[in-house]
Fold each of these.
Amino acid sequence: MIAEAGLAALWLAAAMALLQLALGALALRPGQGGLAPAIVPVAMLQALLVSIAFACLIATFARSDMSVLLVAENSHSAKPMIYKIAGTWGNHEGSMLLWVTILGLAGATIAMFERKLRADTKLATLAAQGAIALGFYAFLLFSSNPFTRIAGVIEGQGLNPLLQDPGLAFHPPTLYAGYVGMSAAFSFAVGALVTRNVTPQFARAMRPWILGAWIFLTVGITAGSYWSYYTLGWGGWWFWDPVENASLMPWLAATALIHSVTVLATRDGLRAWTIMLAVLAFSMSMVGTFLVRSGVLTSVHSFAVDPSRGIFILALLAIYIGGALALFALRIGTVTEGNRFDIVSREAALVVNNLLLTVILVVVMAGTLYPLALEGASGAKISVGAPYFNATAGPLALLLMMIMAAGPLLRWRADKPKLVLSRMALALLAGAAALLALVLAGGQIGAMPLLGLVAAATVAVASLAPLWKRKLTRTPLFTFGMVMAHVGCAVSIAGMASESAFTQENMVAMAQGETKSVGPFAVTFAGLREFPGPNYAALEGVLLVKQGAGKPIIMAPQLHQFSDPPMLTNQAAIKTFWNGQLYLTIGEKAVGNRWLVRMWWKPFVTLIWLGGAMIALGGLLSLLGRVKRDLTGKRAADAPAREAPAKEAAT
Amino acid sequence: MRRLFALLAALLLAIPLHTGQALAQDYAEESLPNPRQEEQALALMDAIRCVVCQGQPISGSNADLAGDMRRIIREKIAAGESPAQVRAWLVSKYGDWVSFQPQVSPATSPLWLVPLATLIGGFWLLSRRIRIGRKR
Amino acid sequence: MKRKWLLWLPFALGLVLLGLFYVGLKKPEDHIIVSRMVGKPLPLFTAPAALPGQPGAATADYRMGKPRLLNIFASWCVPCVAEVPVLLRLKAMGVEVDGIAVHDTTEALQSFLARNGNPYTRIGRDDQSRIQLMLGSSGVPETFVIDGRGMIVHQHIGVVSEADIPKLLGLLGQQK
């Protein structure tokens, strides 16, 4: 009965989405404004119904109801409860239902809390949100029904063991909240185009929604990176795999967007470009969903795919992306270009930031999709992977770091190069000191990691400069947010550069009692033991790790042999020190009487994810700061002109 | 596989171990003694695509054939071949597909030209929006 | 409206992208990696005998004037069982079939051949896939057609079925 209730709720939610679209379209007609208030409860009802449907699906998984096809195919009654629940979105249908649930919730949140937006623009925004939801409800109901029944199944086929990890519980929901949260930016942009309302006030209304989605996206990518780092068992934290690239593309567009929207909000510039980016960010989210779900590209991250569904998503992509871009082409001509700016100014730095982020986005897209295009055109098969992305996106990212160091120290409108240099003196000094230290320390270090570390030192100091000589208690929260996010970038880049430059790796076969070294550690192989896990058999290597004369610690990497479905997974043993991580795994086989052990010492690798967390936290501070200002300084926000430049400029 | 590793584990635990007994290295899974060569080999392994589990580089794949490729790569590097030569050898067997580093050729040029064109086009658009030389 | 085309540029690029996705979806799913060694001489190798009493294989054996099939297989490979009857039929027609056993043991191989029959003239062992890698082969089973002068003429990927017999006979015949 639960499955039927869920299906009914899903149909009703789809009906609400249709109603939301129709109401919006009708109420926008002259003289029909009386209908407008009705759209708010409709959006809320839609969110409620789709949440009920999702809750029903979770219930069928939690109860291991094998009469539901999806549960039978993807779950197993012997699984721990957390993986039963998380398994709800560890498959195609469930993850798409999660997708529309978040979409519905985003729509309802806009309906309830958005107060700054002009009424007609809000109406159009909600109508656009309804239109998107409608398409994806159709996709679920007609080609990916999660509630289909099946008879005669007693036991399920189980969940891919790689997904039986706490990471599954929160990685997809956060990433999806980011992906789908970008629909708000998209709908705002469509709403602004339809009602010809591309103004600073519109930008200020849109900004918190973009920030919110961007925070989720940042957390999702960071968590996903750490998840694959510890589950795949090879010590890598980013593989430039199509699925990873699919999550990076919307993030790049969204990062450009949160910067350009600031120009629009503060200086009334970059009107058309901001709208373009808002469309692009959600388009990239949908493209990402399409790439992951259709199986067009080969990926490490295994997903059950079905090309016939690909056609359906592609049709939705064509309608939404094509429609929005056509609307853009038709309407944006009526939007005047907005203010111009000086070559040495905060605006110019933000525009160059946008340009570089866009070019990085193009690099990621080209690398991900060009093999497909080439094979389609000539049949030639090529592979594009880490060497290409590192060599092209790397230098662009370094350039971006330089702009990031200077940007916040520039004044709006126009600034004097000499003054900028003097404000950056300390940061440049820090960079030079880092360079000197690294060169003096010797050792072979590649050009890119070296420049990365120098840039990180420069950016870290430069990013703190806006707080210099300021009364910290009177500094707005969003300035702290920007500082935190930029320092986070420096921290993350430092981690990446350090990992790439200083990682020590040792792959060895060890007999019992034998000792090998990696980095500053001596690792002794004490032996192997076997024991049963909850739904797997485990083989554990016991390793004694000693650093210098210190007390030895025990690290125990494992292999897990799952039977439903049969699969072997590698559980790395990871020990975090203040200056890095020791990462140990055992191999599947022996060489003679010696067992294979892989050891990595990764200095400061944790900074990569710490930086990611700081970037997200910076976004959160920024969001809180904006919301707080809107609540307290209502009058200031209502004044349409611009925020006082002095408050945002440095010094 | 499960039975296999249970067997191997039993074997390893049961046999009184003769430590210090010289055994041949298995370069499919073990590092080269020369750290510089090992570094070169690892970098190459990161850039060679596994022909069995196709999304992964051979450095991170558990497939037997990936291990065999790692062994050959380490052996060739240890024998003094350059990473470029070893890559060329693999490409001569499996085609460009096997290398994650695309060769620069007319067919692959869009990989670099498209981003470059975006950069130039972007600066061109930008130049129209910037005021130069009118300081206030 | 002098730069109207510029405004439609994103739309056009979007269409190109969607077109590309459509092509990608329609493209038949193939994960087959074709060997680049076809049309080239067989690389130099010597595969020691995998079984006592049956010779191993080496490059020189393929320059004796008679075309031969070189079958890459393994006793642990499930689909390999299916092609043994076909290989036996080819053998009955006078075709020389040699085997390269990948990652195999003598005992497993003996019981595999005892169960399914032995179509092979020679069986070489390839414990570390060295010969497989030399040939540009990416899995088992695969079958290479080698002409009498040691040239690789054709690579058949996957199980050889009854339907493939005429094609293989044709390839072998041309090379006589």
Amino acid sequence: MNEAHVDFVLRIADDSLILGHRLSEWCGHGPILEEDIAMTNIALDLIGQATSLLNHAAALQGEGKTGDDLAFLRFDRQYRNLLLVEQPNGDFGMTMMRQFLFDAYRTILFERLQSSSDEMIAAIAEKSLKETKYHLKHSSEWVIRLGDGTEESHNRIQESLNTLWRYTNELFYADAVDDEMRNAGILPDLSELREQWEKTVNHVFDEATLTIPTNNWKQEGGRKGMHSEHLGYILAEMQYMQRAYPNMEW
Amino acid sequence: MSSKEWPLWEVFIRGKQGLNHKHVGSLRAADAEMALENARDVYTRRSEGISIWVVESNNVFASDPSESQEFFEPADSKIYRHPTFYDVPDGISHM
């Protein structure tokens, strides 16, 4: 088993899993029926990606575990997702802002991963890219609509941007795992990932008349398993059934 | 309808190449782009379509049900308008 390889797959998988779970919390609570369905559609796309990726990670581990084991039976320190995706939903604007910051990054990442030497990753990236491009279209249009909307919608989504901006630096987190994956050809060159992301983000914020906060304080840790207090609550809800009734299926 | 409510849109979907767009329902949206995306999410989740039209319901000019007698009933008695008096030759399908 190549530990870096598993870690690398878990990072992508856990982003999908945790954000998918977060979005699913909107089910039945959307501001309008159509958005309720849109958000749960996106949640299902993400959970689908997580399923493929976690199954792949489990196979790479070679310990006879399944993707479900990885989803439901790890402890918080073993999750590798970004801090951004575990942040609470807040109001609808906050959810759309979180989604937009993530989608803009994810689209570029999946574009690059299509040429990964790990054929499973390349295939999952190709399939997921189509979904992610739509997610980005959806979330960026909402950011523009709310930012360039009424005074209240503008102020509220600007507030969301101010809150979430500190988690964006972690999108470009890189360590020894990334080096090893790059050397193996599994992770294509990600230089200019940040430049491209900034281009998308600046373009949308321009149209949305939103301002990137000048406070440059950044927070990270999710990629190493150091999470905010929110992840524990997510896992408590997500894992309850498997923990209470081990091996149950339905 | 309160003025705060978003406009109503009619949704038309083309099921597959060669078929017409068919009316499938309606939804509310603030603008055309949002209507299109909502239609995609609400009406094509199970691969029902390859093309979507949305039309603001305001723009649909409809026949008046109270005029249905003069509008539609005269056609009922004109059976000669139906091409049912011809023998269809063997080998012609889909007629």
Amino acid sequence: MASRRIDVRAVSKDPTGQVLRALYAYASPDAGAPCTIEHDGRSIAAREGEPIALSLLGAGVDTLSRSVKFHRPRGPMCLRGNCEGCLVRVDGEPNRMACAAPARDGREVRSQNSFPSAQLDVLRVTDWFFPKQFDHHHLMVRYGTTINEVMQSFARKMAGLGTLPERPAEAPLPEEIDCDALVVGLGPVGLSVALALAGEGLSVCAVEEEPFAGGLVRDSLQWHSRDGERLCGAEASDRDLAKLRAAGVSVRLSASACATFDDGTIVIQSDRALWVRAKARVFTNGCHESVGAFGDNDLPGVYTARAAARALRYGVRVGESVLVCGDEDPALDALSDALSAVGAKVHRLTEGERLLEATGSSSVSGALVGRDERSAHKIKCDAIVASTSRTPAFELAGQAGVEAAQDLDRQCFASWADELGRTQRSDVFVAGSVAHGGRSPVRESAVARSVRDYVTKGRVR
Amino acid sequence: MSGGRYRVVIIGAGIMGLSTAWHLAKAGITDVLVVDRGYLCGGASGRNGGGVRAQFSSETNIRLMRESIEICRNFAAEMKINVWFRQGGYLFLTRTKQRARMLEASAKLQRDCGLETRLLSPAELRDIVPEIDPTGVELASFNPGDGVVFPWPFVWGYAKAAKDRGVEIATFTEVEGFATKNGRITGVRLVRTRHDAIVAEDRVERTTAAGPGPRLDPARTRVIPDDAERLEVECDTVILCAGAWSPSIAKMLGIELPNKPHRHEICSTEPLKPWLGPLVADLTDGLYFSQSMRGEIVGGIAVEPTPEGINQRSSAQFLATYARSLVRAVPSLTRVKVLRQWAGCYDLTPDGNPIVGRVDGCDNLVMACGFMGHGFMMAPVMGRLLAEHVATEETTELFARWNLRRFREGKLLSESMIIG
Amino acid sequence: MSAKVLLCRCEDVTLAEVEHAIESGQHDIESLKRFTGFGTGWCQGKQCLIACARVLAARVGELPLAPVTPRPPVHPMPLGMLASLGDAVSVDRVASERASEDEGER
């Protein structure tokens, strides 16, 4: 397959220079030392520390696994640890997300749940055998117990993704952290709340599941202003992060707050567990993004806008010919411009058109678009960016006891908070796009004061 | 359902209530209403580990469970829904000498009752599960006929079959009280909630150590709205199968039950290709785990002190305790990941045996609660017995023994093979 | 067109399957989740919950009041690391029972 690595020297059509700036910030040759990983017995050139999913994508490999029941081809879709598309076996450990596993020299990556390979899996017949759905509730129930038992024993063999690791791994001792406030999620809002909290004199631990801070700002392809300078998303985010560290906040990157309870929060940082006991918890962990509901929307080569932007930051373009569509979002225009700048042919939909179906056998080779099925025409492309509007990531706050409720305006669920970030739980606060209330934005400094009031006075009000 | 009259009202659309409803309908009693405060599978019937075993320490339980296992085997073909019953056996481990002696006695009794239970030395464990670390194990027992099911379709299967025969099932319908006359229940007062307006104990807890937090939007809290539909149904017989919620419902009738709800937590891992045959249960610390049909390792453990009361929230203590015990048993699971944890309520009685049958002083109330953590596996056979009891009004020796009055009379029973 | 529309990628749940489940009476989001299995896989609903809730809303008239109960963890956690949390968080009943048995034998 053709390489999708971007040659920075060949970047053209970049009048504002922002794409180059973004690329240089992260895709310059010194971003990570060259290394080699092995994928299904094949050597792949990679850069140390970059997500394996992008090493593979850069080498033209976009079909990484097969789905659990239908054995449909799957590949990275979100590139931020929120989907199952890139699950592979890494160094003997099943079900690692290739988008979250860093490349290291000699790492062994294997595709799962396919025979003989992820690109060509004969078990795909399941997909064709059940053209609409897989009705596992009523499969073979009409032919008596014996036949049913035979079906079950076959179904059991087909189930499961990876296989049990051959050997155990020693887990390092956990780290116990006590602090006034735990801030989860270092997107723009989390960075700002954490800084304000430190300014209020609180001891703050801030965790971010990605290996970098900045969230949507980092993945953006627009200019940001900091201290009177014009910076690209990555630079602006790093500037914010440096301020946070300077203010004395204990910052943990590559640290996922996985589960939160009344007595503490379990954070997994790389290969180690943290047990964080905080007087107050502040959730600023943003939103989810997905692709829309169109035919074969799970085909490898279908990405969210954020995934495509992130790939660019690692010097990889998701395709040579890319259809960019989705809910109205200015980021899509910036993304289209950036993809053009790095030499990709970009297709956009015209007024009234929509994406009906992705086509291709093991990854995207085209798209059916049109006003309806009768007027559909085919576009030849090797990647589709099809984002839906973002929806609040209410799950973690929900674990802490903050009710998520319907938001009829945005047709989604969001954590309930007042304009000061306070929730039903006096020790739990939310801010940013996790929270309900698109009309009355929760302001970071106000949230920080609520948290301070709670921590110092014991309770709010 | 719009008021009216039913021969039998069953409170609780869990597996026990639905199995009973189905057996009543099969016996021709279709004038039955089953009510539940939430959705199907919302209580313990949808939250358990799906284990079905005959390895118990009392003859009664062993014989009842043999019948339940037979029902499970034919359930898919008979009820036309897959429940993924798989007889991989139950492998019991003990790590102390005292428990090993109890296991020996139970295994002997089980063989006398016709089970194929055999005792295994630590070295022989690996013949059954090669991945197990036998270090520290005193003795194990294995019965190949035990197995696991997927609980949800089991509940749906009974519900659909009962409905097809005319039983009415009203979900999101909560009991608010009873009408009684001369020591009999004449009516059940019900309130219908919105589909999603259930009171979920696993979600919201409005107070913290620091005191009650602010209530931001009272309209959004999960309470029954004032304008909810309320109605009363008349009935001849009420069967109380509300599991851990039974004591609070019995209280509405002035009946104090000795059973108490206790949280029990479970978690499940990422799906792996099949490697684990049996359900493994460690009698010493209450650890159990099995591999579901989807390939996940599903299991739980007893966490002490278990708080009394309805509580379905998850805890870190459970996760850490379970993980520590599980990786001790199977070290290669260290890199396997937990995908989901949840909690349900055990319905614990002082003597580990259920409360079944009529209640003195409330002639037409039939109890079916206090099934500890194994109500699910008992339900297939208990449903038949309860339906027979209601249809014939005859009290068997078993129902006399399991009656509520034993606690008043001080005739407690025993059962030592309880997990978790 | 014969292409499948995947609402829940992790568990291979199609739009047709969700629609069929709603038609067969799964009118609340918790029941719909259990019946179709959406949200029970690798991502635990991060990708699919909204899509399925919107399909349900289109059929029954309004988005559910609340989503399905969010259960820990948000991201998968290795058992070995959970075990390592050890004494800070967990209890070891085997150790305590052995200790008390040893005491009894002495």
Amino acid sequence: MSAEPVAAPAGPLILAEDLWRTYVMGAEEIHALRGVSFAIQPNEYVAIMGPSGSGKSTLMNLIGCLDTPSKGDYVLRGKNVSKMNDDELAEVRNREIGFVFQTFNLLPRASALQNVELPLVYAGIPKEERVARAKRSLEMVDLAARMSHKPNELSGGQRQRVAIARALVMGPSILLADEPTGNLDTTTGNEIMGLFERLQREGNTIILVTHERDIAEHAHRIIFIRDGKIESDERR
Amino acid sequence: MSLTRRLMARFPVLFSMREAVALGFAAIRAYKMRAGLTILGVVMGIMTVIGMSSVVAGLNQSMAKQIEGFGASVIFVRPANPGENLSDEERRKRKGISLREVKAIQERATAVRAISPMEPLFGNVIKYGNETVRDASIFGTNEAYETVHDVYMAKGRFLSALDVSRGSRVVVLGADVADALFPYLDPLDKQVQIDGRRFLVIGVMERKGKFLFMNRDNFIAVPLGSVQRQDDRFDFILADVKPVSAEQIGTAVDQVREALRRERKLRFWQPDNFGVFTQDTLTDLYRQITGGIYMVMIAISSIGLIVGGVGVMNIMLVSVTERTREIGVRKALGAKRRDILAQFLTEAMTLTAVGGILGVAVGGAIAALVNAFSPFPATLQPTWVILALATSIGVGLIFGLWPAAKAARLDPITALRYE
């Protein structure tokens, strides 16, 4: 396994083929996903929509390599992730996935800069390089001036931008955002959505998971999930 | 790839040790009370080790000095051996050696250079003018004492054979007794009173120094038989024996025993009803005692360390639960199991290391106080300090392992959803 990024092979960034995810609850088997297949190309801006209980969170966990499918194949940048163990998945998450959460999930005792540094720590990158890259990432979200602030000294929108800087710092293949505006007011939410659009124009691939239609509208493609299946997949 | 790069790739968290230690300190700061109570056991355990080892080491050093001062090759003849387990009745029956037995040893034991009988005469009062000394050890002895105990005279001379055979009323004073009776005068040729009888001071011994509660300068020697015994509990004579050479000490011990057994007509199956031993016996006994102290020390500190360790385990389990979400985030960002494990282990070890450092500080302070305000000498031992710190960190490692493993095993999805 090489530490250097390899040029993306020709073909889709994500290839999901007949993904099933089954949970066993006592004697009962619950199918959260029932054969989901799709492909996502580099630099796409995709929203995954669906009501609660539709299986969209399960799908997000699979896309984010937090979980593996019970059946089917998930190929990320030409690599089949489906059969990987915990530590291999951690490495893939570290290099390929940039998570943005609804509740920001910043470490409360660490400064903005230290929060952004965190993925670089787990990539084994030395201190000076970490600081330089974290600073560059914070500049990208216009927060370089606030890097020594703790999360509780920042507004909600600023916190989410720190989280986005943290998601971008490793130069991931996918920016995976789970209800990124769910904890923000409308104005701030729009600011964040504007930031996503800019990042997409700059070449990032963005996957947005939401249950809000007007947030999903920002994306260029909406995959609608219901009862563990893709109900619609529309490009706009 | 170089070794450091490979190591960095394998254990990234090791290279952010500073952050992990800082996190440990942050946890301590955030929960001062809880962390303080938690590491109290570790502090106590380490304090015990440092305090007691310092005292024992101090004792060892002064013991070694004393053994040199005693003159290593002296054989002690006593009613019983040190550490000998005797019933009260048996102890009462034991007799000191008689002058006849001293004579027998002198005649038969060829490896003996000199034998000095000593009659303890406690309870006598010594006076000069207005000055009185009551608590001195008075011994009636003979001229051989000088040879046996390598006595050096500060002034005058020791008892002579003639003094002893005539029963002259002369006395040799230890340095402390001389100072007490003659604060301003030269003691030589003065008449002191012992039980109202006058004795001429013929010599003052050189200062020998203190050893624990034993003051070897609070000593008075008079010719054997010149002073009446005042206390009937001490109705025996001791003898100290010098072999012809240090190498002959074993032979001399055997010969002394043989002579005494013959004098006392002991059958071959009967055990010795007297004690003949050397400095080595005392050293062995001393080692047994300090060995016992070490055992007690290890027992007390183990209890402290186990209590502290369980506390650390508890606080770490609480910490893992409280920070479930943080663990989820770290895992989502790419932390492997060993990263989380290393983080929580470092935190636990930081906690116990702080306890260890506090324990060393408190133990060192206790040792300094003991040194300053008690008769026991105490010196801080670098070996024990290092050992204690290593042990405290080890406690963090051992008791932090389960909570850390629990954290490392958490499923990222569940952990992220944890409220």
